[in-house]
């Protein structure tokens, strides 16, 4: 579960879920069916609020339950493409496709008809038809500049597409993560498998040279299988690995002379071939990175750009003989994609929320261009009593909105960790944020000035990912950490985070996923990965006991307590496709019953409860609401992008407005309050005195 990104590339990154060996272990279909719902789903549609229902406390959902707020902005720029008009298209993880018609200054989500918003590849043919390869739903085509999309999958038996290339005749080639290469000769209407001669069927990169020869990067069941070439339009393939000392190829670029460049995974080699792949030479001089090369670009001016997974961009102006790092202005250094327009402006797509950067001077300076690009992964939300919203993203830190999500500002001053997992507001107004340890930073951070600045308050003490935070009425802070041994478990601070003490007496599991505190200051801790389920403490954390009777799913991602009656709700995950869902305890955790009639998702992330006791569940598969204590549920995913998206976080403000943090769509807000506001009393008119008749 931990996500410690060191060297290597996004190709094998568990966060992107492109894990080669998962497919080769026989779990391909299961992964497509479920695991990628875990990633980002997203994008805009803003509707006018509907009239309140006449039934107290139950609002009309209208056309959509949710509307996307204006942020936070950013996202994963997994695929980039530019058409002859200079319009730039980016495929994101969970947010679908965005288009810019003004050179990246602004972006608009264009997902009409796109049922899978996890877009891994883009290609544009000579007729300006756009093809989008998705992780689990095959290929979509747009013939109207992205305004609408149609699935074109006839014959495409493998649903994941991670590479696309189009030759001069308009034939399309699609690389899959386990199914090899498919070809369409009729603009995507029909596909056939063209694997003759291939020995590896995980194909992360495709390229076609001026002669129409096709190059495929392949990975096999146990090892990388290098580069294959087809000179007969994909009918047959031959291995061309002479001199290729690292066969784990991730990317290609071909310059105007026909020289082929291949970027590899760790230790981050670049190879060059001047003879159509018959032989390869390593060209790494000056490219001081061991991270994978996920993207390559050859410009008409003769420059070659290499995008690394963690060390940014390298440029060569001598055909790869020498490289220079060119990261000025590049605040996100995990590069996934490149494209270039006719003016020579270069666009770089980055990972973990960094979004898109543009360079107009051959890479000397990069400028972030994320206006309108709302494809962020929001893992935590907290709302203060004045309705200021705090959103913790996984990759680009903290954001704040004081106007119900209309505007967001990034507030990372002093925040060394940017992979946020939990948030809590103390009675004194201090904000506490918990983060995963990535790139050496993590733990608990505190802001005493409404998020303007942050300070780490757990350095040297808490060394594990902080997945949960809860604060009791006395201001005692509890941090749930996710690690085995003494590093994990629950930590307590009674002095606003100045010092911390491990409080795990009676606990046998250091893998804490969730925390909740009831009105009696009883603490509940949900665990994951150890089969223990829920622990309860009635003495401020000094001792714990199991409270699992009836809890048949023991990976507890979220806990929520109904403030009206103390009933506890546990959001759980399935194991190997079994179990999961919602459980309820009406006796302080002594016993649990499954309460998920109507919940179609098995993996539930979070629970939030409004002032009426209506329960909201955020899941891998959307959002659900119960107005009867969990006895039955209604799917309220409408408006999320895509519907059935992964909802990581839920919170409800003082006006009853619900907010959802999603994987790839930023923050969504319920179109209207989830509770009916009290009517404003109208003063009765004062009767006028009538004149006395004469």
Secondary structure layout plus pairing:
Elements (H helix, E strand, L loop, with lengths): L19 H14 L32 E3 L5 E2 L1 E6 L5 E5 L3 E5 L7 E2 L9 E6 L5 E5 L4 E4 L7 E2 L11 E4 L5 E4 L5 E4 L7 E2 L8 E7 L5 E6 L4 E7 L7 E2 L9 E6 L5 E5 L5 E4 L7 E2 L10 E6 L5 E5 L4 E4 L7 E2 L9 E6 L5 E5 L5 E4 L7 E2 L5 E2 L2 E6 L5 E5 L4 E4 L7 E2 L9 E6 L5 E8 L2 E7 L7 E2 L8 E7 L5 E6 L6 E5 L7 E2 L9 E6 L5 E5 L6 E4 L7 E2 L8 E7 L6 E8 L2 E8 L7 E2 L9 E6 L5 E5 L2 E5 L7 E2 L11 E6 L5 E5 L4 E4 L24
Parallel strand pairs: 2-31
Antiparallel strand pairs: 1-58, 3-4, 4-5, 5-6, 7-8, 8-9, 9-10, 11-12, 12-13, 13-14, 15-16, 16-17, 17-18, 19-20, 20-21, 21-22, 23-24, 24-25, 25-26, 27-28, 28-29, 29-30, 32-33, 33-34, 34-35, 36-37, 37-38, 38-39, 40-41, 41-42, 42-43, 44-45, 45-46, 46-47, 48-49, 49-50, 50-51, 52-53, 53-54, 54-55, ...
Features:
four-stranded antiparallel sheet; disordered N terminus; 1 helix; 694 residues; mainly beta; elongated
What does it look like?
With 694 residues, the chain is mainly β. The protein contains one helix and 58 strands. The strands form 15 sheets. It has a four-stranded antiparallel β-sheet with strand order 1-58-57-56, with no helix packed on it. It is elongated. It starts with 19 loop residues before the first helix and ends in a 24-residue tail after the last strand.
* Biggest β-sheet strands, sense, barrel: 4 strands, antiparallel
Instruction: List low-confidence stretches.
Output: 1-7, 11-61, 678-694
Mean pLDDT value = 90
- Indicate the overall shape: elongated
- Total number of strands: 58
Total helical segments: 1
What share of residues are in beta strands?
A: 35-45%
Provide the spatial order of strands within the biggest beta sheet: 1-58-57-56
**How far apart are the first and last residues' alpha carbons, in Å?**
92 Å
If you compute it from the alpha carbons, what radius of gyration comes out, rounded to the nearest whole angstrom?
27 Å
